[in-house]
Here is the input.
Amino acid sequence: MTSRRTGSKIHTGSKIIVPVVLSGGTGSRLWPMSRTSFPKQLWSLVSERSMLQETVLRGKAAGFAPPVVVCNEEHRFLIAEQLREVSVSHPKIVLEPVGRNSAPAITAAALLVAQTHPDAVLWMMAADADIKKTEALAQGMKKAVEAAEQGRIVTFGMTPDRPETGYGYIEKGEPLPGVEGAFTIRSFREKPARDAAEEFVKNGNYFWNSGMFVFRADVLLEEMRRYAPDVLENVKNAVEKRQTDLDFIRLDKEAFAQSPDISIDYAIAEKTEVSAVIPADLGWSDVGSWDSLWEISPRDAENNVLVGDVLTEDAHGCYVRSEGPLTTVMGLDDVVVVVTRDAVLVTRKDCAQDVKKLVERLKKEGRSEASVHQKNYRPWGFYEGLIRSERFQVKRIVVAPGGKLSLQKHFHRAEHWVIVEGVALVTRGEEVLLVRENESIYLPQGCVHRLENPGKIPLTLIEVQSGAYLGEDDIIRMEDSYNRN
Here is the structure.
């Protein structure tokens, strides 16, 4: 994959425009890559950058204010690191204590922005959509900002190129006075049946609902007060009782949890009298399933999309991706094959929308593969499982330079660390020891210990755990540099 330009400069005078990026989804239709522990917006699916990075860079390329990113607590360090990698400075990273859909998340962002700039224009977008036509986006944003300044809540209607049943539709109304190319909204239509979708495309007056909105902070809050006062009241309490945690804004859990679980569409977009739509052809996709990713990806002479260590023979129209071993496909057409370190998905492309059902089944059966990868990221680096048995397991642990694990102990297991690259500074009880490459150290059950990397290169070690219980919840933290509970 190659990097691509993510935006164009948008001239909006001195108006403050704040991108608001919602990064709370799990993208279960893109399993086995997208899982709760590492969802699709954090993967590099359409370029060398993650989808989150592509999204925030659109705002940066346009010259807008630093973004507000709303995410769940589990992903906070991953998101902060991905923003740092693409030099996004001074972002506000807002932590949702519980998932409550898009309306409460957007309200929280609007309240925070309104504290200093109540008439700022917010550009709300999901972290996991792809936009290929950046010049068209710049033109559409200019119109959207003009309409937002008039007090409108503006959405983008994507020009449909097929009768898609997986998207909602917007029916445009009359032209909006004063903003060329903008229209009032006559109706919102839920995901239609195939025959209705075909009629919508033929009609020419219907557009896919992109879920992207542009509005002034004060207008959004007024419409929330009018149509969803319970959302506004509870989120306002959560914002007022917020705490700052390192580089993060932590909303009050008790207050936020009282908010209804509702989308921005149901809360106000389908009710407000100030809505507007900008029809546009942005090369947009919500990248919601493997077949949609095949649609937007470059294909070879056999119409295949091949990613990773992949080989095909007499295969056509396939999406084949491997994050690990050599994967071969022979004599098949129109299939999806996705290989990770611990799971393999094989399905027809026309069944790709149903992968979510498979994930639900895995969850009901208590399979960890439904939500957790073998490779697990932490603020200090990552670890991945290599071997697991009933009373022992082996992991590879990589600690970034300067990274430091918590001071901790385990009640049910002992650990043996073998350093294979770098230098480790190990606290073991009252001792502090420097352990180098090809050296090892034993940590008995119940021993208070800590691991840190004092060097300038990543520290890699092999950890062998042994004991009656090896779960990740057997960690008692006495001290933690990252304020984890």
